[in-house]
Amino acid sequence: MPGSDGSCIRVPVAPEQFAVVTLAAHGIAVLPGNKCAVRPTEPVRVATAILAEGYERVAETLMTAAQRAV
Known about the structure:
Elements: E1 8-11, H1 16-25, E2 31-32, E3 44-47, H2 55-66
Antiparallel strand pairs: 1-3, 2-3
Helix pairs in contact: 1-2
């Protein structure tokens, strides 16, 4: 997203640790949601402002990690 910053999405996942490790194994760094929330929460925070390409790969990997939440 040219000209913008601070964009992020929160993706519900469970367990959070599985998602963080799965995404890291695919070269995608995310922040555990509980680091950004007042109350305990399971979503991971994904910063998208610096993502210039590879949207599909990131989306597919997030979907794989999030499917454990269902």
